[in-house]
Amino acid sequence: MDDLEIRELYLGHFGKFEKKELTLSPGINVIQGANEAGKSTIHSFIRGMFFGIEKRRGREAKGDLYGRYQPWETPGAYQGSMILEKNDTRYQISRNFLQKERSVSVTDMSTGRELSEQELLAGGLLEHFNETVYRNTISIEQLKAATEKEFAGELQNFIANLSMTRSNEVDISGALQRLKEKKKQLDIDGLEQERAGLAEQALQAAQKVERSDELTEALQELLAEKEALERDFAEQSKGFLGEQAADIGRMLEKYQTYQGLTRELENRANSRKQLEERIQKIEEEKIDSATLDADLKQLNHIKEEARAFEMSRNRELDIEEDALNRELKEKRMGCIAAALTGLIITIVTAVLSLVPGIAIGIVIMLLAGVMYLVMASRREKKYQLLLQKKQEVVSEQLSLEGRKKEILVRNYVVDTESLRKKYNARVAEEAELRQLKERRQENEAEQEKYLRQRAQLRAELLEYCRNLQPELFDAEELTEEGMRALAERVNAARQKEFAVQESYRNAKEELRSREEHIRWELSTLAGAAVQLEELEKQKKECETAIAELQKESVALEFAMETIKKLSAEIHDSFGESLNRSISEKVKEITDGAYDGIVMDEQLTVRVSSKNGYLPLEKLSAGTNCQIYLAVRMAMAELFFPEERMPLLFDDTFALYDDARTEAALAYLAKTGKQILIFTCHTREARLLNKLGIAYELIELGA
Amino acid sequence: MRFIHLADTHLAAVPESGTKLGEMRAKEIYQTFYKVIERCEAEQIDLLLIAGDMFHRAPLVRELKEINYHFGKLTHTKVVIIAGNHDYIGIHSNYLGFEWAPQVTFFYENTLQDVYFEEWNTRVYGLSFRSRDWKEAALEGAKPQNREEISILLAHGGEPDKLPMDKKALEKAGFDYIALGHIHTPLRLSERIAYVGSMEPLDKNETGERGYLLGEIAAPGEVPRLEFVPAAQRNYQLLEIEVTPDMTNGAIGDICEQQMEAGGMEHMYRICLRGKRAAELVIDREMLFSLGIVLEVSDETMPDFDFEQLAKENSNNILGMYIQRILEEDMEETQKRKVLDYGVEALLAELHRK
Fold first, then answer.
1. What is the pTM of this model?
2. Which residues of A touch B17 (CB under 8 A)?
């Protein structure tokens, strides 16, 4: 069994100490001092001497001891040394803590030889000895707990952790919780849902694309169907009568017209005959109206003449006669007057004896007389003429009358009126004749026209019928029955054509509506292919992300499992011995009040006593303190089964009552190990005195 | 004879759809397309060959009218176009019956057609997709009619169900140049066969330059001289940043920003962080997204644990044992690293040092 004890401490420059020397005895050492006296400093110094003081970085900078103990006054000097005795050989460990000048040397004081650090650690002075172990075994700090209950809980965790992790520092349940949290945070489910959503959408898009393809195919088929339909119909249409057949109605009308024309021509023939007869009849009469007219005119003339004679001439004559008479009278008067005048003159002149005047007067009487004679003979002549004229008139009138008669007789009439009638009649007839001739001419022209029309219609009809039904019209007859039969046949054919056209139209309409439908649906599916591509891409990205997360998840799971496995292993191996060792020590320290501890599967610790098994929380703080002590002792033993290491107690008995403190101190003394008790009370010293246990007292001043 | 070989322009596509960026990209695609046409006019290029997928999907009539207007302004260049598997000529396609400007020749059939340009003694052959998939090897046996002409074959596809092509056979068939479309990465397969790639990148995995090929064939039989012209307004780029444990978020951000500025802030970046980060550092991904056009941030860094040291210090307890146990496990490295990181992180977090 190796024995390791600390003999001397020399704090060259450390914390508040400068050139402080401390000598420690084997057995119990009580290092006593008030708070801030430097107990922790010395404690840390010891640790530092064992392991050095690294300037801690990162998370660990929290407990940076380097800074804490770097001397304020002399930051540039930071060193010290410690003398250990192992198995009767003394070693001096010297360290310079200053970062830049860090150094450590270990000297074997018996030989003066300096050991290398490897020698120290490996199989040398401090085998298996590292800071963690130090903290788990040698350096016994208080459990920091405010209340009793918390303390029990702390202790419980402490023991459990210890059994599972072989360390009082690692909170395994906390570690597992962290890993669990991290695993939960990987939102794989969320991504899964997203992926499922995308897959769903992609499926729909794919379906759309498929449908689109289907529809495209259907459309192509449909277009082919359309083409076929058109082709068929074109084929069928070739045999159609079509327009020609539509003409049958017109043709029938034409035929009616034709027949009408034929009838018309017949009628015309008849009336032409009548016309001719009439013309002939009229023409038979040789006398024309002109002649009659002339005659009439003559008659008129004659009549006029007669009348003229009758009235005017005679009157004229009468007037003339009268006039003559009057004239005569006048003239006579005049002559008389003249004669008288002459006479007068003569008389007068005679009286007066104006011979010339008498001559004049006589002349005048003579003149008057001559004149009267002249006048009278002239008048007589005129009167003879007049009588002659009257005679002429009568003979003229007679001649006129004769002429009139001649005319009348010539015309076989008795009087002018009849002649006039005859004339009128003849005029009428002549007019009629002219009309008739005109009509005849017109008729002829019209006849021509009608004949032409008829001939044309005939030709058309024949043409039409031959085209429709050649066999029917081998004969050049256009008959009623024939036409009717033809019309019937044509109508029948036409019905069939209509039926075909109807069905074609219906089929076409159906195809068109189907086509519209398909095209409309296709338009709603447009863009599905692009969408699908996009969705597939996103889905793949999602899947990659999920795969990544799953790897993380697997790693976390594996980590958790490994930790659990390890802790079970530790529990099985170390835990067992730990519990046994603890039980032993519990019994010892509590003086048999408690037999030991047991730990169940849930790592719940129970203490066994006469009253059965009690969980830690049912125990008093004091008892729990004892149990804690037992645990620490057990740990030290388990870690260093072959060595006896010093134990450092840092204010550990604070919660103990006197009785327990006594018991603990007694126990510790019994172990025979070097014990360093750092305390700010005098109690420990006092009790040790009471127990009569030898100890070294080191008092730290302020 | 000078020509421009263009393909997979995917007009009317909206990359990164649903984002403002996406809207811009859709516009930029059109802009770049029109710029190419402008170049044809400015430099009086003889032929503009568009090897399929000009549109991202069956085009609308008004879309065709727009681009046809631009084609119509060309005073010298002749344009030859074929349809690809995205804008295939289906029964509905508005390509059918569309009246192109006289400068444009469009091959509608899925059998080989050709058009001869006397002014350059050049015959262009081509065929179009009439359905989404095309499993027949329709180019089998294709060869130029007359070796005294410059002959160019314009085709889209080259995959088993998208017009499979025996490229070796085609190489020997006698065409002076075979202008292909469909693959979005520019790729010169041989002296005479090339995929020009997409004009603008359409997907974040299409990193690298994109544009068109400017080519020249001096005479029939001559090997074509090809020059790749990057034309895309924006590229996708992958930034791989090596993180070290001394870096803070600020440092990482600065490095990213520097690299993005060097590469060009107009581009679209995917940031991939690798290496070891300080154990307690939580990478601020949001900050990285705000540095520019960042589409993706992937954090492949591992926390900087010195497992050996930890194992040594904790050899007696579960932490040390855990490390040992995992290191001994037979599993794939990255996974092992993950398990170590998680476990150690959790155990260390619960390591209460006093």
1. 0.60
2. 534
- Structure token pair of residue B285: 């991904």
CA B190 to chain centre: 20
- Would the CB atoms of A567 and B203 count as touching at under 8 Å? no
Residues A35, A702: Cα–Cα separation, whole Å: 9
Distance CA A278, CA A440 (A): 11
Q: What secondary structure letter does DSSP report for A572?
A: I
Rounded to an integer, what distance in angstroms lies between the CA atom of residue A36 and that of residue A555?
A: 48
Q: Could you report the predicted ipTM of this complex, rounded to two decimals?
A: 0.79
DSSP class of residue A591 equals T
> Which residue ranges does chain B devote to CATH 3.60.21.10?
2-230
Number of Cα atoms under 13 Å in the Cβ half of residue A696:
18
pLDDT digits (tens, 9 = 90+) for A68-99: 677 766 666 778 888 888 888 888 888 888 77
Domain boundaries, given as residue ranges, for chain A: 288-410
Across the interface, whether the CB atoms of A556 and B58 are under 8 A apart is answered no
C-alpha distances in Å from residue A521, one per residue of A211, A219, A223, A381, B258 = 9, 11, 16, 138, 53
Q: Is the pLDDT of residue A468 over 50?
A: yes
Q: May I ask the CATH architecture of the domain B2-230?
A: 4-Layer Sandwich (3.60)
Rounded to whole angstroms, the Cα distance separating A179 from B350 reads: 11
**How many angstroms from the chain centroid is the CA of residue B338?**
33
Across chain A, mean pLDDT equals 81
Mean pLDDT of the region A434-438:
84
* Cβ neighbours around A143 below 10 Å, total: 21
Q: How far is A56 from chain B (nearest CA, A)?
A: 12
Among A178-182, A465-469, B69-73, whose mean pLDDT is lowest?
A: A465-469
Give contacts of A555 with chain B, Cβ < 8 Å: 335, 338-339, 342
Q: What is the 3-state secondary structure (H, E, C) of A110-127?
A: CCCCEECHHHHHCCCCCC
Is the confidence at residue A457, as pLDDT, over 60?
A: yes
Collect all residues of chain A within an 8 Å Cβ-Cβ radius of residue B312. Answer: 130
